[in-house]
Each structure stands twice: as structure tokens, then as C-alpha cells.
């Protein structure tokens, strides 16, 4: 892994890692490989760190973002819910993410090829995507079961997310959480366990469905 990537390049690297061993086929509820929209959503709920920086208007991502993205999909493939993954990976170290993500080892560099070599075609990162045609009717495994609960993830500060199993959080709820969390944030910041929030006067909550 080298340097930084755009969000589309990050999605391609993650898709290649997951397609290498067929991880996306383990669970019928985890079918789509990562894309830009999913990466932005994971960043909003605290599963992926904010971008390292920007080149102009282009957000840049690094190796830790790749580990986080692949680790989330690995856990989803084993049947874990988003809420469970948030609790486990919200403050995971690089070593923990490397163990869970288990990125494929890049092939060894071979000797220089002969003088004339055709440029290899770009790998097809979506080759492992399942057939989504409707030529044959299928019934999902969870048909008829109650819908999964909605989980609200409230990001209090970088690296600190409050997960609530509630259907709705309104502005009054967020204001109350912000006021109640101030002493905790101040103590954690004093101990150097979390950094100060980017916008300490505003909290955000996004609903998270178990089937995502």
C-alpha cells in the first residue's frame, strides 16, 4: 500500500481485497462490494476515520481507511450487525484492524520481463459480484421476519461514538446528549484519550439498519 487514494480508488482497493477470497459471498445479506456512497456513510457513523486531507476539493484516504473498510465488511460477512461492529471497531488499533481485515499478501516482485511486454489490462474488481438478474424468483432467508432494529450512532468526538438502540433522535435529544456528555468529553480530553470535537456545539445522529 502506498501514499494516498481518492475515494473511488479506496473503494477499488477494498473491492479487490474482498474479491480475492470471495468474502462477499459468505453472507446473503452482504452482497454489494464497497462504493463511494457506502464509504461516506461509514464515515458519518464513525466506522471509518475522516479523510487524511484534501487535494483541492478531492478527499484523500490512506492505508488505515482501507483496513477499516475491509474489516467492517469481514465482520458483516460473519453476520454481525452495524451496531455490534461500531462497538468493536470504533477505537480499534491498526494491529487489530490488520488482523480482522486480513488483506491478501501482494505477490512477490518477479524479475524484469523481456523488452517487449504488453501492458496488462486493468483487473475487473467487480468480477465477484453476484448475479442480480430476475430470471428466477428467489426468497431471502429473512423473509417474513421482523425488520431489523434501527440504531442511532451519535459521534461525540473523533474516535468516540455513542450507539443507541432507539428509533428516532430529535434535536432536543441531541442537545440533551451534548450537555450530558460535556463532563465526560472534558475528562477524556484531559487524559488525552480523545481529541476535541471538530464542532463542539453540534452533534449528529444517523439511523443505521442492521441489514446494511
Automatic annotation (TrEMBL):
<feature type="region of interest" description="Disordered">
    <location>
        <begin position="189"/>
        <end position="212"/>
    </location>
</feature>
<feature type="domain" description="HTH merR-type">
    <location>
        <begin position="36"/>
        <end position="88"/>
    </location>
</feature>
<dbReference type="GO" id="GO:0003677">
    <property type="term" value="F:DNA binding"/>
</dbReference>
<dbReference type="GO" id="GO:0006355">
    <property type="term" value="P:regulation of DNA-templated transcription"/>
</dbReference>
<dbReference type="Pfam" id="PF13411">
    <property type="entry name" value="MerR_1"/>
</dbReference>
<protein>
    <submittedName>
        <fullName>MerR family transcriptional regulator</fullName>
    </submittedName>
</protein>
<dbReference type="InterPro" id="IPR000551">
    <property type="entry name" value="MerR-type_HTH_dom"/>
</dbReference>
<dbReference type="InterPro" id="IPR009061">
    <property type="entry name" value="DNA-bd_dom_put_sf"/>
</dbReference>
<feature type="compositionally biased region" description="Pro residues">
    <location>
        <begin position="105"/>
        <end position="115"/>
    </location>
</feature>
<feature type="region of interest" description="Disordered">
    <location>
        <begin position="105"/>
        <end position="128"/>
    </location>
</feature>
Amino acid at each position: 500500500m502506498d501514499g494516498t487514494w481518492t475515494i473511488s480508488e479506496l473503494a477499488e482497493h477494498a473491492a479487490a481485497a474482498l474479491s480475492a477470497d470471495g468474502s462477499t459471498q459468505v453472507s446473503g445479506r452482504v452482497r454489494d462490494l464497497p462504493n463511494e456512497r457506502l464509504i461516506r456513510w461509514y464515515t458519518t457513523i464513525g466506522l471509518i476515520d475522516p479523510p487524511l486531507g484534501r487535494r483541492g476539493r478531492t478527499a484523500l484516504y490512506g492505508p488505515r481507511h482501507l483496513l477499516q473498510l475491509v474489516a467492517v465488511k469481514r465482520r458483516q460477512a460473519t453476520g454481525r450487525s452495524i451496531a455490534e461492529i461500531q462497538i468493536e471497531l470504533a477505537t480499534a488499533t491498526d494491529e487489530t484492524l490488520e488482523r480482522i481485515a486480513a488483506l491478501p499478501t501482494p505477490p512477490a516482485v518477479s524479475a524484469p520481463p523481456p523488452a517487449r511486454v504488453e501492458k496488462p489490462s486493468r483487473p475487473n474488481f467487480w468480477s465477484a459480484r453476484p448475479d442480480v438478474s430476475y430470471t428466477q424468483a428467489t426468497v431471502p432467508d429473512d423473509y417474513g421476519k421482523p425488520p431489523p432494529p434501527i440504531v442511532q450512532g451519535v459521534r461525540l468526538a473523533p474516535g468516540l461514538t455513542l450507539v443507541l438502540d432507539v428509533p428516532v433522535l430529535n434535536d432536543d435529544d441531541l442537545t440533551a446528549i451534548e450537555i450530558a456528555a460535556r463532563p465526560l468529553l472534558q475528562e477524556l480530553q484531559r487524559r488525552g484519550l480523545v481529541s476535541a470535537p471538530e464542532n463542539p456545539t453540534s452533534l449528529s445522529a444517523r439511523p443505521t439498519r442492521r441489514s446494511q
